[in-house]
Task: structure prediction
Amino acid sequence: MAKRFLPPKGTPEFEAEKQFYLSADPAMRQQRAISLGFSCSSGYSVAMEREGVYLSKAVPKSMSKRYNNPPIIREPCLVIFDTQIPFQDADFLNNLLELAEAWGIKQGISGGDLLNMAAFSIFKERPEDKIWRRDRDIAIEVLRALHSHIPKFLLIMGNHEAFLIKALAEQIGHEDILSLLGKPEGFIATDYYYCLVKLGGSTWRITHPRNISVIHGRVPQRLCEKFHANVASGHGHLAGMTPDYSGKYMAIDVGITCDLLRLDYSALRDSTRPSMCRGGLILMLGDDKQCHPYHLYPNSDWTALKRLYGK
Ligand SMILES: [Fe+2]
Ligand SMILES: [Fe+2]
Result:
């Protein structure tokens, strides 16, 4: 009968051998293998594996950044999308800002495509629309006006911001765009294409998604189902507020704050896509301490709305 090098399985001696085998370093295992009668440590390992004991090799931890830290806003806020400066709809923006200020709102969120960034667009554009210095000067004025009504603004990424960042091989981030705009007071920027608003027991995901649809509300509905939160999205340039399929969450295609007749690609040529829609959103903490979404359109009754929470 062949010589048994390991104690019989199920005995305290085997358990002690197993603990040693699993905790020893390679040099210690080699020494032990010889003392047990194996010719080398691999024989020791084969014998252990026959008994169902394996040395685990830990997968090294990735050193790459994990993107699990989006900005979170915890107060009532005005949310605007797709301002596409220099094509902003000034009248609509002014109505939104005056209403938000009347309601005492101190926080704004731009949900992406704040500047059109045609100078860095991947698409062929009209040369007169590709003058960065002109767009920058207009943007500085628009941002000053936003700040004069609402002291703090968070800017999330949109694909138009990405035009510039990608043109520079991602060597700059969103905050660097603010530097190009003279570091306007009260503005911070994130590289996330979304942020969260946690208010009155509700969570809202404010997002500039990859997808578009020809059905108003379809994209935020799908995102509600994916992220189990209320969703307010832009990028699709449509507007509508609807429950998601579960009925638990609200989905809002917020709409644009630019003037669609200034966008040559949609104003000069017909398309079967639905017309772009303007819209803005205020997430307000009501008298009942719940978060209430107010979806606002150019023809909203601004005077009556001001009375709702106006001081
Ligand atoms: Fe847009
Ligand atoms: Fe967009």
Residues 72-309 form a domain with the Purple Acid Phosphatase; chain A, domain 2 fold (CATH 3.60.21.10). The radius of gyration is 30 Å. The first strand starts at residue 72 and ends at 73.
